[in-house]
């Protein structure tokens, strides 16, 4: 096999340009020219949703979690020469940042991933033009200003991995807090503390996806208004909080 054909074959198998360049003593520039000018080559696997027979992500649990993260604090940027999915995580929760990056890698292993630290938060980005194929909810405008509905194949994944979906939603747009109230005990008013989960989103559709999933899991919830609007979903009953603690847990 000629050197050029061998180079193209190895790169197509996933070998990096650096490793092949060092092994054969051929410059990266020469290999790049072969790839882009002499014989254009797809260097990433084809999109599973763009095939004649579309498939679902292999790691469905990670996809369910990533779907929750995307619906909460994620979005897709599509430019002529750049496409990426980004989730924004609070810098106070490094475990959440790691979980977001891990979900991106498990759902689409090949694209490059980067982190961008900003004031109080970290943007985790994965670069691929195929993210809109995996998240057809992508579109112009803010999520709460347009319809958000799951495709049948997405709903099937959520039905199979509901806790992963709920975890993604809560860890993006929710929290676990310690609430308090007062009670009369033995004739004296005493402070009483209890754990509570909140999920806050302006999108009626996203809140509905969240509460529908909670209903299927047997988690009791209530609406809490904020400035006259029912943006908050509260889970405060002991048994339901225990379920969320067991399967979701606080951010870390």
Mean pLDDT score: 87
Strand tally is: 8
- Relative strand content: 25-35%
Strand order of the largest sheet: 1-2-4-3
Helix content: 40-55%
- Work out the count of structural domains: 3
Quickly give the structural class.
alpha+beta
Rg, Cα atoms, Å: 23 Å
Q: Which descriptor suits the 3D outline?
A: elongated
**Order of H and E elements:** HHHHEEHEEHHHEEHEEH
CATH architecture classification of the largest domain? Roll
Query: What is the CATH topology descriptor of the largest domain?
Result: Endonuclease I-creI
Q: Please tally the helical runs, counting DSSP H or I stretches of 4 or more residues.
A: 10
Query: Tell me, what is the CATH class of the largest domain?
Result: Alpha Beta
Major β-sheet profile? 4 strands, antiparallel
Low-confidence stretches: 38-42
Structural summary, described in words:
- The protein has 252 residues and is of the alpha+beta class.
- The chain folds into 3 domains: 36 residues; 94 residues, Endonuclease I-creI, CATH 3.10.28; 76 residues, Endonuclease I-creI.
- 42% of the residues lie in helices and 26% in strands.
- The strands form 2 sheets. Strands 1-2-4-3 form a 4-stranded antiparallel β-sheet. A 4-stranded antiparallel β-sheet has the order 5-6-8-7.
- Helix 4 crosses helix 7.
- The chain is elongated and about 90 Å long.
- About 2% of the residues have low confidence.
Question: What tags apply to this protein structure?
Answer:
42% helix; alpha+beta; 252 residues; Endonuclease I-creI; four-stranded antiparallel β-sheet; 3 domains
